[in-house]
Design a protein that fits this description.
The strands form three sheets. Strands 3-2-1-4-5-6 form a six-stranded parallel β-sheet, sandwiched between helices. The chain is α/β, with parallel strands linked by helices. A hairpin with a 5-residue loop joins strand 10 and strand 11. It is built from 15 helices and eleven strands.
Length: about 375
Amino acid sequence: MTEPAPAGPLAGLKVLEMAGLGPVPLAGLMLAEFGADVVRIERRKADRPFLAPSPPHDLDRHGRAVLKVDLKRPDGVALVTAMALAADVILEGFRPGVMERLGLGPEPLTAANTRLVYGRMTGFGRDGPLAGRAGHDLTYLAYTGILSSIGPAGGRPLPPLNLVADYGGGAMLLLAGVLAALFERFSSGRGQVVDAAMIDGASLLAAPFFAFLASGLWQERRGANLLDSGAPFYDTYETADGRWMAVACLEPRFFAEFARLLPLAGDLAARQYDRSAWPAMRTAIAARFGQATQAEWSALFGPTDACVAPVLALSEASRHPHSLARRAHVEASGGLRRPAPAPRLSRTPLRLAEPPAEGCPFEALGRFGIARTEAERLADAGILG
């Protein structure tokens, strides 16, 4: 007899995700891969300016049932309200006041469903002079001080993709707050509002650097510190074939291995933390890396603890032997090669989110307490898609 596949750690959890861009969809994807039953609510005429038409592989929708609801009509708002009565979590990422104007703010929903955890994601938070302003990852990083620290000495601040505020400070902190509220609900029996702001989350990620600054261990100049390319043994170097190697041998024993293998000539190998030696050390390291290809350097350093790695392209990362051995990237529907769900749990493994099924998801609506006859009536009226 075949054992049934174990359910994910959040099996049985019902989540409503109000469609948006950035951190909320990533949080919805992760909750779905944790096993939660996630329904994504999209507007009938969604505004997706730079993603229209939807890309072939739209992870913002994978793993969920997707409903298109006309939220400008009372019956559409009533539908989402009714679904919220059966939900454990609602996620939304609109500007302050939008959900309230729709009649779907936390006050009426948490009053009707006292166990509801209402997760809110904003850029600047729900108060303060910037609360109502538009922004993106780069905007929030500019205000946190983080952006001023990213980039080469003498160069301009560089955008770190949208990984820091959107996904690190946004999605991950929203998830942490939601999971904490769900845990607290076991003892109190009550939900609560989780107020997450990308500017707050990004700042929190930089907390150690604020401590370094207060301790006199951080200079507010790009490329002047240990972890911002200021140190020649924590930087990237171009190879003979125009590729790059990343060097990160901070500890003396790792630096000694790096210096031996490179090799680093003269007395530079004994002067790792002598800042006066850093300019000559950087020049020497750059010259050596320019004498061989990335593949040659990878073969030399790969089996060692020198903390040197090839800078891979996204398309190369999934084919690296370590990724293949760990199945760190997996094949999803439609030939999408993507990172596997993470982290890995021993008893209740995560599931890979697949694209949503076509058509109206009557079964998903039923799990949220909506009768099929009512769903069909709303579909016929053009309120539900």
